């Protein structure tokens, strides 16, 4: 009888000690553990539609893609996996969407029955909560809010799938799957044809667009806006930067994609005006990490691929279900460029001054991310005989946890698939933990060296 409490006590001590010594390592370990469990579940015979065991690389790749809410697949999701397999994938998406730090905090709660200081620090580093007393309620609020939004999207999609000819139970299941996948920016589709049959269907695609956009803003923005819905002046600087930059990127992406693909017979040309507008809006939102597509990305022009590369690399909001370097990182760097061009001493936005430390973190995250993409692209080029444009698109999509592809994922050699697995894991956890580490290590130095400016440019 004493073995149970003793084991629980040792587990609690291990978690608390790990959180004190290395919060980032604990978070990464928990995330890796989830991927391992999902891989085992997908490796069982009843996870596949055929009843056979999935190859290890396929199970690992799918588990990583689902848990990191990426959406890249090496097998057709709706055809290859059974109902049980799809349920496992859906659970992985839901867990992955909660976030690395929140997940680590939940583990601490389950073991110790409380949220200690270390777990509060873990969550606050991801969610940007400044008062540690709010973390406990925040975790519950995040879970409740995300679930409510997902159910709302599913309710809207359900009648449309019924009209499309699906049986009631199947329509309900697909509506829920699409809703969870959309809000968590996962990009997984439970049907063989995906969203291609709905390319001009506003009823079906608009809820998915809204779900992806809201999910990509991040929980700090969602909660901040919800608390001050009618008082925009009380929104935080983070919320204002995230929303304005996100809307700007969506508008820019939609217009430019439409301009590039308007006459492309493989994508937009067969569509009417309304269909083109919807497809353009859809294509402008999805590179933020949504990963869904209604047209064949592989048929798009190379210029469109390059634009999507840039949008995927930026990604969505901090502490969101989206990947990339985050829109606030881009906003801070653009504001710094404007300030330098004007000769201003401070970087300012919406009546607030942005600290130098924030700019340093933004530069570090961007440079490290670009370096990871460069190294991974070189490795992939060496492993495959594919062209740089397709490799770069695949690498950025994996690193930014987006899930869009030109169609090469399934045909990649096994070593290249392992590279993408590592990229998806780093993309979902790496830049976040790097930013948190840099922020937590910020400290005042008593002694400072004399200042001198090297020549730049």
From TrEMBL:
Keywords: Cell membrane, Ion transport, Membrane, Transmembrane, Transmembrane helix, Transport. It is found in: Cell membrane. Coiled coil: none annotated. It is a multi-pass membrane protein. Pfam families: TrkH. The chain crosses the membrane at residues 26-47, 59-78, 84-111, 138-158, 202-229, 241-260, 306-339, 359-379, 418-440. PANTHER family: KTR SYSTEM POTASSIUM UPTAKE PROTEIN B, TRK SYSTEM POTASSIUM UPTAKE PROTEIN TRKG-RELATED. This is TrkH family potassium uptake protein. It comes from Cellulomonas xiejunii.
């Amino acid at each position: 009888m004493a073995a149970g409490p003793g084991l629980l006590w040792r587990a609690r001590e291990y978690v608390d000690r790990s959180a004190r010594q290395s919060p980032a390592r604990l978070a990464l370990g928990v995330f890796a553990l989830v991927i391992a469990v999902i891989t085992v579940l997908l490796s069982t015979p009843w996870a596949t539609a055929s009843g056979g065991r999935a190859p290890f690389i396929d199970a690992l790749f799918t588990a990583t893609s689902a848990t990191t809410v990426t959406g890249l697949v090496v097998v057709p999701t709706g055809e290859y996996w059974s109902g049980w397999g799809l349920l496992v994938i859906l659970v992985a998406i839901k867990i992955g969407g909660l976030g690395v730090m929140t997940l680590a905090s939940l583990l601490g709660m389950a073991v110790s029955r409380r949220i200690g200081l270390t777990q509060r620090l873990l969550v606050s580093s991801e969610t940007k909560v400044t008062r540690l007393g709010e973390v406990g309620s925040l975790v519950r609020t995040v879970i409740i809010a995300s679930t409510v939004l997902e159910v709302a999207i599913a309710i809207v999609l359900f009648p449309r799938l019924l009209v499309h000819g699906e049986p009631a139970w199947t329509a309900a299941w697909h509506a829920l799957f699409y809703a969870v996948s959309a809000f968590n920016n996962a990009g997984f589709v439970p049907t063989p044809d995906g969203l291609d049959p709905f390319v001009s269907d506003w009823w079906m695609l608009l809820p998915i667009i809204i779900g992806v956009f809201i999910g990509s803003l991040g929980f700090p923005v969602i909660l901040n806006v919800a608390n001050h819905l009618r008082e925009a002046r009380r929104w935080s600087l983070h919320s204002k930067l995230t929303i304005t930059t996100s809307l700007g990127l969506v508008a820019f992406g939609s217009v430019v994609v439409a301009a590039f693909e308007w006459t492309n017979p493989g994508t937009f040309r067969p569509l009417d005006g309304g269909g083109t507008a919807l497809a353009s809006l859809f294509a402008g939102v999805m590179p933020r990490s949504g990963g869904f597509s209604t047209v064949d990305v592989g048929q798009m022009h190379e210029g469109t691929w390059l634009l999507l590369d840039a949008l995927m690399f930026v990604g969505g909001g901090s502490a969101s279900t989206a990947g990339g370097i985050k829109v606030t990182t881009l906003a801070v760097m653009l504001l710094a460029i404007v300030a330098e061009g004007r000769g201003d001493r401070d970087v300012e936005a919406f009546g607030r001054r942005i600290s130098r430390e924030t700019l340093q973190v933004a530069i570090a995250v961007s440079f490290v991310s670009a370096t990871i993409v460069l190294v991974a692209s070189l490795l992939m080029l060496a492993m495959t005989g594919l062209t740089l444009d397709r490799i770069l698109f695949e690498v950025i999509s994996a690193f930014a946890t987006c899930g869009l592809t030109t169609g090469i994922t399934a045909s990649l050699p096994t070593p290249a698939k392992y590279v993408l697995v590592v990229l998806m894991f780093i993309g979902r956890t790496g830049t976040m933990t790097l930013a948190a580490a840099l922020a937590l290590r910020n400290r005042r130095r008593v002694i400072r060296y004399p200042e001198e400016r090297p020549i730049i440019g």
